[in-house]
Amino acid sequence: MRGNFDKELDLLNNEIIKMGGLVEERIESAVKALINRDIALAKDVIQGDIEIDEMERDIESRCLKLILLQQPVAKDLRLISSILKMITDLERIGDHAQDISEITLLFSDEKYIKELIHIPQMAEATIYMVRTSIDAFVNHNADLAYEVINYDDKVDDLFDIIKDELILLIREDINNGEQAINFLMISKYFERIGDHAENIAEWVLFSILGKHVN
Questions:
Q1: Is residue 135 in some structural domain?
Q2: The domain containing residue 63 runs over which residues?
Q3: Partner of 148 for a Cys bridge, out of 52, 127, 182, 201, CB 3.0 to 4.6 A?
Q4: The domain spanning residue 185 has which CATH number?
Q5: Residue 214 lies in a domain
């Protein structure tokens, strides 16, 4: 019985890795579409969100079956509960990549009011956070989870830099306003992606330590 349960947990680990990898790809594609004004790629990100939603439902179903059929002990139940929370955050990260791409469609052939420097840095930071939080889960590594939580400060700092730059651009020329607001929304979505990655890391710590870490 325990052997079957462990086998199912291994399958869940693999599914989490796949979902995390897919979410990383969506973030990478979203920022690439933004930088290059690649409308076709932006549309691919938007349409690809369905795949992430399907993965969430599949993993959720597997988790619920394990709970119902295997009646896991406290530690195992804590692990499965953490997985259920983690996939919700991963799905929302996918949603934010979609949101970013939808704003990219609004830019069309417009010339950007500023060179994109810090937004790609935010994207890179959030991708690192997502990847590391999944690694922390798979390897039961609390140190990696704490690293993700601390790394979120970098994303927040970049958001503040972008916000200040955009405010200055609007003050210099009110015609910059519409684009500045769109860039601010994009940076806000990246900040939220960082928050969700931090949530995942906190659930990893809960699965390992048995307590919530704030």
A1: yes
A2: 2-209
A3: 201
A4: 1.20.58.220
A5: no
Give 96-142 pLDDT, tens digit per residue. 999 999 999 998 778 999 999 999 999 999 999 999 999 999 999 99
Residue identified by tokens 């939603």 is 53
Number of domains into which the chain is organized = 1
- With beta carbons less than 8 A apart as the criterion, state whether 202 and 212 touch: yes
Mean pLDDT of 36-42: 94
Angle between helices 2-36 and 118-138 (to 10 degrees): 170
List phi, psi (to 5°) of 139: -95, 5
Tell me if 119 is assigned to some domain.
yes
- Cα dihedral sign, 68-72-77-79: negative
Record the pTM: 0.94
DSSP state of 108: T
